[in-house]
Specification:
It is a single chain. The chain is an all-alpha fold. The chain has 13 helices and 2 strands, in the order H-H-H-H-H-H-H-H-H-H-H-E-E-H-H. It has a two-stranded antiparallel sheet with strand order 1-2. Helix 1 runs antiparallel to helix 2 (51-67) and helix 7 (191-208) packs parallel to helix 9 (248-271).
Amino acid sequence: MTTRERLLALDVFRGMTVAGMLLVNNPGTWSAIYPPLEHAEWHGWTPTDLIFPFFLFIVGVAIPLSLADREPSRELHFKILRRGVILFGLGLLLAWAPFYTVAWERARIPGVLQRIAVVYFFAALAFLHLRARSRAILSVALLAGYWVAMKLGGDLSPQGNLAFWLDHQILGAHTWRYAPGPGDPEGILSTVPAVVSSLAGIFAGEWLRSSRTGTKKLQGLFLGGVLATAAGLLLHPFFPINKNLWSPSYVVFTTGAALLTLGLCYALIDRMKLPGAKPFEVFGKNSILAFVGSGLLVKALLLIKLDDGSGAPVSLQKLLYSSLYAPHLPDYVASLAWACSHLLLWLAVVWWLDRRRIYLKI
């Protein structure tokens, strides 16, 4: 594989992840959600809790595919910083738009794209300036340091953990108002172990662009996936798997799951050339556009108010859902059908854009 050669399996894996984000983030009603599409309440995990770490892992895989053989330079550093700033800005846009509705005294600052921006910045710099062994040592040091700090700095409850306490001290009310504690699930301290999720992806990216045979690459991905998944589960009794805290066991466990998923995509798409992955491929090529566009559309549907005949204005989203879905299907099925419709709408958008080779490049 050449440095700039596109890895189709990575596009498909990214597309699967983004499709999962859109499906999870857009139910017809938050009062009726299938359990697999909900996050774990605190400790533990559901399939939904795999989505975000998968995306950070994918960010890491893409780094050596795009930056390998490039010498560190002021221009390259600026390009990395610029991309991080744009991603962070898109995250704030998504959180605050339309700005006239924002209560600025508690406007949320952290978020999904904001964490991706910070993680990408530090992971890319680590790739440029550290050898593989040094990155491995850094990964262990970050997880171990976070483990010790969290264990010594409080308990692991929503109200008593160090990460949420630090968010509250620094960010005040500028955190997610639905968080289970006073902090933010994409907060400051918990971003430290999140960097390791991308550092792990860098190792996978280097492995895939190496001169090893396809069979050796697959064996390495699957073996690493099995070992990391098992290690994460073994660590769970000592520091529970927890997405909100981005616990070290969560990092190791989700890295293992990501390796297995990437290995499966690589085997089916790049090696066996099986058809049928085009929907995920087009999502993967325009992932940021789909994520941001979907979020803005949802906000628009909630802000547009109409009269449903009762005299009280309701959102366009609620009016459409209560008219087209809720009367005809059981609650959970109707809510899922709305989410699937939203997903199919954006599939049509990114497919149309792909046919015209229009992509949002950052």
